[in-house]
Amino acid sequence: MKHDVAILGSGPAGFTAAIYTSRAGLKTTVFAGRVPGGLLTWTGVVENFPGFPDGIEGTDLMMSMQSQAENFGTEVEYDEIKDISFSTDGKHKIVLSSGVEQYFDVVILAMGSEPKKLGIPAEERLRGRGVSNCATCDGSFFKDVPIVVAGGGDSAMEEANYLTRFGSEVHIVHRRNEFRASEHLVTRTKNNPKIKLHLECVVRDIIGADHVEGVVIEHTQTKVVETIPCRGFFCAFGHTPKTDMVKGKLPLDEFGCIVTRCHGSETDIPGVFAAGDCTDPTYRQAVTAAGSGCKAAMDAIRYLENVN
Ligand code: NAP
To answer: Is 109 helix (H, G, I), strand (E, B) or coil?
Structure first.
């Protein structure tokens, strides 16, 4: 007997789960949304996904995962989800923005996460014109020009060090005088002669008419304001899990990630599982997301075997 599986999200977690459930003969729909593929499609070459010794474009990797799932019978729905309601004793309801309602025995939540933003108008006005959230994707556009990175975590350190391959100099702007990043990354950053630190400083504005020309920073103690001339600005403030749709319906942790049980993918509601970056504030790798998508699918398959 076939069962309906809904998978919300079309990144590595979602499509890996779909490969497993559709290969197991379950009728599987991936709700990909209007921009399928997840964050990997923002990335350039992915060099650390096992099996690709020369690297693979993030978009190509996601298209391959989708084709693999479709070869086993997965259907992909591009309409956006307006609402979802979970049931403890029956089918879970998904309402699409077109108004269509669909019911599923199992839901796997794999909505991923999105980069946090500065939240100022200039950031959106100059996005793609010097403002970016992805050093790997866009770093090479900034050859021999100054670049500013905001943030004090591992991502900021990694991105700043990576960007020194291209930029003439890289400025890190961080709001505190201590870093959240791990010690070895901080040491590497401090030893990099192309990196200049601006501690206890916050970004107030990004200037430029058609492209980024500078970043205005303010010292949090002295209130002194200065402009760092630059052509690139990268915000590395971490990520927000895309869990708004299930807020109040499932327990979330302090990061906003969906809480799962005992290193598995089960949530508090029978038949509802979660995987990938929307459950993971720490690793956020394509390969860890794919692995947790596999676990969610296996948990879902086992659940369906036991309820019938
Ligand atoms: P994160 O650890 O949450 O760091 C975000 C940084 O941005 C913090 O320094 C934070 O400042 C700053 N920030 C956030 N919002 C801000 C705001 N509104 N204004 C000013 N500053 C703001 O995020 P992440 O660096 O992306 O790392 C996330 C997780 O992935 C971590 O567990 C990390 O270890 C892991 N990761 C690991 C690696 C690696 O091991 N190679 C690489 C990347 C990420 P405060 O410090 O003051 O809060």
So the answer is: strand
